[in-house]
Amino acid sequence: MTIERINPGSLAPPGGHHSHAVVAGGLVFISGQLPITPSGEKLNQSPFEDQARQVLANVQAALEAAGSNVAQLVQVRVYVTDMDQWPVFNRIYQPWAGAAPPARAVVPVPLLHHGFAIEVEAVAALQSLPKQ
Predict the structure, then answer these.
(1) 29 vs 68: CA distance, rounded Å
(2) pLDDT > 70? residue 131
(3) 104 to each of 51, 66, 96, how far by Cα in Å?
(4) 66 and 127 in contact (C-beta within 8 Å)?
(5) How far apart are CA 103 and CA 122, in angstroms?
(6) 51, 92, 98, 119: which has the highest count of C-beta atoms within 10 A?
(7) Contact assessment for residue 38 and residue 98, using Cβ atoms and an 8 Å cutoff
(8) Is residue 103 part of a domain?
(9) Count of domains forming the chain
């Protein structure tokens, strides 16, 4: 099986020892995305809504760089530090995920790296060959 690691220029370089996306077996695995802008600005002091939008934009950028898209999502895992933000996230997520939402889990966690309020990881079907 061929495994391809994807780190698109449309995202800040990974802050740890990981790739933003890995393509294997016809699937795209998106590493946990944090609210970090493409220029590397950490939005840990920004409102939850801004953090959620940035995280989803990062997931989408990683998917597209790997040859997939939001419509191909199979599963999404959302980690939040405040479950009271779940309705806010749903309001942002619903139009982003579209008419055929993937399987999803929302997991409360006590804290995330750099004090972020949200992290999202995902798995999608591969739509085409990765673009480097």
Answers:
(1) 10
(2) no
(3) 19, 21, 14
(4) no
(5) 10
(6) 51
(7) no
(8) yes
(9) 1
